[in-house]
Amino acid sequence: MGRRLKAEQWKRIMTDARVSTYQRVADTAARATPKKLAKPVTGLSDRMVAWLFIGPTMLLLLAINIFPLFWAIGLSFTNYRANRPNEVVDNVGLRNYERILTDPDIWVAMQTTANFVFWTIALQTLIGFSLAYFIDRKFRGHAFWTTIILVPMMLSPAVVGNFWRFLYEPQIGLFAYAVSFVSGIPTTEIEMLSNVSLAPWSIIIVDTWMWTPYVMLICLAGLRSIPDYIYEAAEVDRASPFRQFWSITLPMALPFIMLAVLFRGIENFKMFDMVNLLTGGGPGSTTEVASITLKREAFEKWRTGYSSAFAIILFVAVFGLANIYVKALNRVKQR
Amino acid sequence: MSLTTAHSVVVPTRTSKRIAGSIVILYALISIIPLLWIFATSFKTPPDSIAYPPKILFQPSTEGYCNLFTTRTRQTPEYIASLPPAASFCDEVTRKRNMVIAGPSNFLPRFINSLVIAFGSTFCAVFLGTLAAYGFSRFKVPLADDLLFFILSTRMMPPIAVAIPIYLMYRELGLSDSALGMILLYTAVNVSLAVWLLKGFIDEIPREYEEAAMIDGYTRLQAFRKVVMPQATTGIAATAIFCLIFAWNEYAFAALLTSGNAQTAPPFIPTIIGEGGQDWPAVAAGTTIFLVPILVFTILLRKQLLRGITFGAVRK
After folding, report:
1. What is the largest CA-CA distance in chain A?
2. Rounded to the nearest 10 degrees, what angle do helices A199-224 and A104-135 cross at?
3. CB contact at 8 A, A64 and A57
4. Which of A85, A300, A333, B131 is the most core-located residue (most Cβ within 10 A)?
5. How many CA atoms, within 13 angstroms, populate the side-chain half-sphere of residue B154?
6. Three-class SS string for chain B?
7. Contact map slice: B 209-268 vs A, CB within 8 A
8. Interchain pair B157, A172: CB under 8 A
């Protein structure tokens, strides 16, 4: 009796683990093993183990991500203010959403964000891909220099971004000095952070400095994934280097480039730390990206209901754009 | 390798290598100037740091580090002359500026907060992440792809958008400005990275090992602990470092949700001010101390970097 039960248990465990090759061996082994030698199979079924393993993570995400998200959705229909918790809260329906979508200031912020995302991604992709292309020439010491290039992206954007304020100082900053040394413009006129037309560029420069290595690393993986024999075949067919680049290198590295753009796009859409520390949205509101507007509404003006609605709109926008983009990415991959 | 390259016609020529090499090296040199400048500034005196033109050669001084760890008050020269001789180097430097050390600054407690929160949340995220990754890798979980995508999508939300309800929730729970609250929050953010990365690593460990162990009488949990865990050590270590770097560098949540008790170094460092504005040598000193651990980790991690930054989507 005991022996039969054991064999059945074995069988169940093995089936659960989707093992078929070992099954017969195990059955025979279990039957053949004397009762005393056979280790009792105790413990939980695989289904239990699976939930035990995945459950805690799901619970944590439900508590820290999903529950607050629903709370925010609830708040977005009210005029609640977090700094006046005792005031009567009115249900205002969709009025918050209506006001946000018709507020010209919000649209200016969205446009600033879009400009910022566009220029940083354009520059990072261009420089990052070129660097990856050159590193892939495998010159002597390329591994060492690659590591050096990678350093900025690992550092805290806030702490390093903060230091760039010093580099940007018009009188004493290294950046202004270097620019005036090259261009001859007096240092006092290079006011990166307080000049309306230069301030957005000051952020784009720091972001590009910091995140080009990221794009470079992914592009490098893309270039290295192209097998040599394709180039050899092209060489045999006497394709020019230019033609090889356009017909082999670029299309084959494209999924990787697009992946880098996706990750950078999401990150830069959320961008907060660098802008907050470098310009704080100023001068005026020239660098006020969506995150900064959101912070002002939520934590300075304390319009919690209104800002929750804005947060939901932003989230839906990121989520929607990312989904559309992933579809495009998959299409390119399958081509 | 040698077989393919020996007759390869696509090996770059020596000139093209040389040109590529010099462009890359030039970029690398320019891109580390800001970091070298941070390091140099941390050893400058305040007057040297704001000299025009910027000083490349200067007399190194540890005044920045002294200022980073202390608060100072201005005193009359007579009062300073009446004091007993300076006990330490920092005392001496401070007195030269007609000031005396009033006490320790907030940098050390903030730095310790950073350590506690970063290590605490990393431990939790990797612990939960390893279990969940194993679950997704080895069992038929209903709707596994949707759950995995849900885990990833939690990272797409702008931090400020998450911070609004978290702020209210923590106020209700009494977790505002507490290390525990920050550890929970960072764990939740990091667990998505941990699950995705570790699932990739565990997928690479052949199932046959555990199956063999289970035939030998191990239970599922024993097989996980004694067979899978040792195999996944490298992956777990790499994942832990990525989580650690994220939690260490994080600014938005820390700036919005902490103000005193649980404030970490990133929101604190920009607020270091001296007399008449930001004390740049002290800021640089704080930045240097803050960045050194990350530099070490980056060098340790360089082989796994690609995997980490793409959530395991790209492997070498």
Report:
1. 95
2. 40
3. no
4. B131
5. 30
6. CHHHHHCCCCCCCHHHHHHHHHHHHHHHHHHHHHHHHHHHHHCCCHHHHCCCCCCCCCCCCCHHHHHHHEEEEECCHHHHHHCCCCCCHHHHHHHHCCEEEEEECCHHHHHHHHHHHHHHHHHHHHHHHHHHHHHHHHCCCCCHHHHHHHHHHCCCCCHHHHHHHHHHHHHHHCCCCCHHHHHHHHHHHHHHHHHHHHHHHHHCCCHHHHHHHHHCCCCHHHHHHHHHHHHCHHHHHHHHHHHHHHHHHCCHHHHHHCCCCCCCHHHHHHHCEECCEECHHHHHHHHHHHHHHHHHHHHHHCCCHHHHHCCCCCCC
7. 210-211, 214-215, 217, 219-222, 245, 248-252, 255-256, 265-267
8. no
Q: Measured in whole angstroms, how far is the alpha carbon of residue A87 from the centre of its chain?
A: 39
- HSE at residue A68, side-chain half, CA atoms within 13 A, is 26
User: Using CB atoms and an 8 Å cut-off, which of residues 87-106 of chain A contact chain B?
Assistant: none
Give the list of residues 6+ apart from residue A151 with CB closer than 8 angstroms, or none: A213, B32, B35, B295, B298
* Residue A39 DSSP symbol: P
Rounded distance between C-alpha atoms, residue A43 and residue A10, angstroms:
12
Residue B198, pLDDT > 70, answer yes
* A224: contact with B, CB 8 A cutoff: yes
User: Rounded distance, CA A196 to CA A290, Å?
Assistant: 18
| CA atoms lying within 13 Å on the CB side of residue B26 | 9
Report the chain B residue with the minimal C-alpha distance to residue A210: B31
Contacts of A211 in chain B (CB under 8 A): none
The predicted model scores a pTM of 0.85
Structure tokens at B113: 């907060």
Give the distance, in angstroms, between the CA of residue A124 and the centroid of all CA atoms in the same chain: 14
Q: Which among B53, B214, B222 is the nearest to A177, CB-wise? A: B53
Query: What pLDDT digit, counting tens, does each position of B156-173 carry?
Result: 778 888 898 999 999 989
> What DSSP string describes A89-132?
PPB-TTHHHHHHHH-HHHHHHHHHHHHHHHHHHHHHHHHHHHHH
- Report yes or no: A245 at the B interface, CB cutoff 8 Å: no
ipTM field: 0.86
What token pair was written down for A146? 């690659």
Chain A, nearest residue to B39 by Cα: A163
Distance CA B241, CA B299 (A): 11
In chain A, which stretches have pLDDT less than 50? Answer: 1-5, 18-19, 21, 38, 40
Q: Distance of CA A113 to CAs A124, A165, A237, A296, B250, Å?
A: 16, 21, 47, 15, 21
Stretch B8-34: mean pLDDT: 86
* Cβ count within 10 A of residue A120: 24
CB contact under 8 A, B131 and A172: no
Segment (H or E) for A232: helix A228-236
Question: CA B16, CA A138: separation in Å to the nearest integer?
Answer: 10
Chain B residues in contact with A149 by the CB 8 A cut-off are 24, 27-28, 31
Kind plus residue range of the DSSP H or E element containing A331 = helix A304-334
CB–CB contact A134 B51 (8 Å) = no
Nearest to B70 by CA among B31, B100, B43: B100
**CB contact, 8 Å: A41 with chain B?**
yes
Amino acid identity for residue B25 in this structure: I
